Amino acid sequence: MNVVVVESPAKAKTINKYLGSGYKVLASFGHVRDLPAKDGSVLPDQDFEMLWEVDSASAKRMKDIADAVKSSDGLILATDPDREGEAISWHVLDVLNKKRVLNGKSVKRVVFNAITKKAVLDAMAEPRDIDVPLVDAYLARRALDYLVGFNLSPVLWRKLPGARSAGRVQSVALRLVCDRETEIERFISEEYWNISALLKTPRGDEFEAKLVAANGKRLQARSISNGEDASKLKSLLDGAAYVVDSVEARPVKRNPGPPFTTSTLQQAASSKLGFSASRTMQIAQRLYEGVDIGGETVGLITYMRTDGVQMAPEAIDAARRAIVDQFGERYMPEKARFYSTKAKNAQEAHEAIRPTDFYRSPDRVRKFLDADQIKLYDLIWKRGIASQMASAEIERTTAEITADNNGQKAGLRAVGSVIRFDGFIAAYTDQKEDGEQSDEGDEGGRLPEINARENLAKQKINSTQHFTEPPPRYSEATLIKKMEELGIGRPSTYAATLATLRDREYVTIDKRKLIPHSKGRLVTAFLESFFTKYVEYDFTADLEEKLDRISAGELNWKQVLRDFWKDFFSQIEDTKELRVTNVLDSLNEQLAPLVFPKREDGSDPRICQVCGTGNLSLKLGKYGAFVGCSNYPECNYTRQLTSENGAEAEGGAQNEPKNLGTDPVTGEELTLRSGRFGPYIQRGDGKDAKRASLPKGWKPENIDYEKAMALISLPRDIGKHPETGKMISSGIGRYGPFLLHDGGYANLESVEDVFSIGLNRAVTLIAEKANKAPGGRGRGTPAALKELGEHPDGGAITVRDGKYGPYVSWGKVNATLPRGKDPQAITVEEALALIAAKASKAPAAKGRAKPKAKAAASEGKATKSAAKPKAKAAAKAKAPAKTKKS
């Protein structure tokens, strides 16, 4: 009997069926050990020795694997076919060697790109040894990310309070987002005009032609820069006679693109389906590991972390047969298509993402998949089969027209196209973001019959004013595309990097666009000022290339670390003498458009509007940066740096305080103010003044006397409970609007309910809350949102919604879902990982890392399985979770 180690229990169950009784397949649940989340886990002074640690959950699994190996004939390591998968096999083997259970038994490594019976059996027939250069590349990447996170993040904490962390890839990705925001702020819009003519042929057909030349000069894009010039050209065309100079129709072929890579799949899923990068990878993981189809678990797609664009020869043959079957002979080209990758070193998993069987069309598997799974599978299947289909044949017609107004001449052009044969477009059409040209091109549709030398009748002249627009903000898809173009990050890191930026609250997402938060911009400006080299695009790309060269066996990984550490450590040491005033001076200049926005009255934006003499500047507080006056404490003017969506804080440029009226009971003035934590209402002055922050969704410009009085008067007495005789009141607390009665709380749906709810409704809500718990006291167990199945150790795993958000539950273990995670999308593998991470947390012990040190532990880390939740970074246990992210 041979022991086979894979990563997930879902794969273990399926592969065990394929291999039969001669094999025992066990799951490692991703990584079995990791660097402890504390300083000193990588030792540069000891030639970068790395101290690994196995957490309690992984220790139990490794004991099961070790016990099985003791009584086996050999060990087969069958983890994923990429750098991270190779590392997991290496870790498992190293732990087993330390346990001394192998005793000379055969150890082989196998990889398969798809979880199908044929792929697995073919892989088992061709075992190999562990790829040492690939493991070395993993070790180098892990050490680099650790050294950057644990050395650069503390600098931020000391010099830039409120900043959370920095990372090798994370910080460069953040710089891309911030640089784009700076471009937008500094963009100066320019006026331009477009002029076209609606013309009619002698046969009565109308079409539109654009002005492209005037008075012997070609007009470039946006060359008509003002209304005066546009008016002159419009007058010329209004009185002109029109003659067709030439008509040219030429055939054009459009070829399909290659099958998906990790990044192109994430981009297409974002553009077409609205999926985030992490959501795309979660769904793809399920499709890869297998779904139940007619009683058999089958992997529907090949491995989803790859930068390769080629398909296996047998897959190409299968695609060509499916093309004939699904679309007809004409749609299959004479020769198969072969693609070459644009990546510098496509080493992750060489084959592109494709269906494991092209005869499993989306219609045939639709009933076995949920809504999101079928959407993504449909995308992968169509792109895969389109990559082997015939070219689209398009006829593009161009008509050149002369307008003559008493010797003044202008040239116009009409362009149209028609698809003569749709080819691959019958299966898949591309969709781009931000105004990029799509597969259909930017030409108009079919032009009517137009003949050379014939006269045309003018119907109408259109002259339209436009203004240039700033470059668009990045979406997740376009940021991934840009990172790939620059050579920053690799397929397994894109989703994790974007998730880190969101989790650290360095960026927010609004209408799928990434907007840098003030914290993110401050961190980027600081790094650009004092760690310039380490956020440069070329430097980061060059380091990625070195890691790829390590994986190819061309560079020594320890030497790469030595070269990096020498300069990096020196830079860290230089910041020890850096004064906070130097930091603020640099940030004031670098972030001037953000810190000192222009004022409508044209006054100096750096002069305090309250005292009129103080200079405004960034200030650093315990909770981050804000803008304050240099005359403090005589002048206590402060302003939030930005609001949550990255725009200038509402009311930030107004004089403070704004008088709203007088409290009729106390006689004190009510004022609207803006502080470092946002706008608020204040009654009276001095230390004893009562203050109330504006609730979420309330804008300062909409606050009047009535709203201010209602807010400052909270809590609001509603009436006495008819049974207890005790007062019921409403208010707004840390967790939102609430009802209070006899020391117990009940949530309200909205802030407006606080001011409008009546006694009857309040009594009903209190009763409903009491009925949720046994005996009317305490908090009952929430109903399950989703049943996930049985835990390997027995007991049901469920998803529930609690006071602090959704969580997974098993027995007495409750593990909160990561921020933004859809509770309906959680998989059993992800739930097991969260439970394992939660269960591994022990009471505080000596030697425990400080919370800030732990927060840096996962920065820049190339993780790939959902088994390493966000909670790991802040775990209070000595041993954090050691499994992979998806």
Explain what this protein looks like in three dimensions.
The protein has seven domains: 2-130, Rossmann fold, CATH 3.40.50; 140-187 and 475-581, Orthogonal Bundle (Topoisomerase I, domain 2), CATH 1.10.460.10; 191-255 and 393-467, Topoisomerase I, domain 3 (Distorted Sandwich); 262-390, Topoisomerase I, domain 4, CATH 1.10.290; 658-713, no CATH class; 716-771, no CATH class; 782-813, no CATH class. The longest helix is centred in the N-terminal third of the chain and has 28 residues, at 132-159. α5 runs parallel beside α17 and α8 packs antiparallel against α13 (476-486). 42% of the residues are buried. β30 and β31 (805-810) form a beta hairpin. Helix content is 33%, strand content 22%. The chain has 886 residues and is an alpha+beta fold. The chain is globular, with a radius of gyration of 32 Å.
Question: Strand tally, please?
Answer: 32
What is the architecture of the largest domain at the second tier of CATH? Orthogonal Bundle
Q: Roughly what percent helix?
A: 25-40%
- Describe the strand arrangement of the main beta sheet, using strand numbers: 7-8-14-13-10-15
State the shape.
globular
CATH homologous superfamily of the largest domain?
A: Topoisomerase I, domain 2
Helices, by number, come to 24
- The third-level CATH topology of the largest domain is Topoisomerase I, domain 2
Percentage beta strand? 15-25%
Overall structural domain count = 7
Mean pLDDT level = 84
Q: Quickly name the level 1 CATH class of the largest domain.
A: Mainly Alpha
Subunit structure: Monomer.
GO cellular component, one term: chromosome
GO biological process, one term: DNA topological change
Family: Belongs to the type IA topoisomerase family.
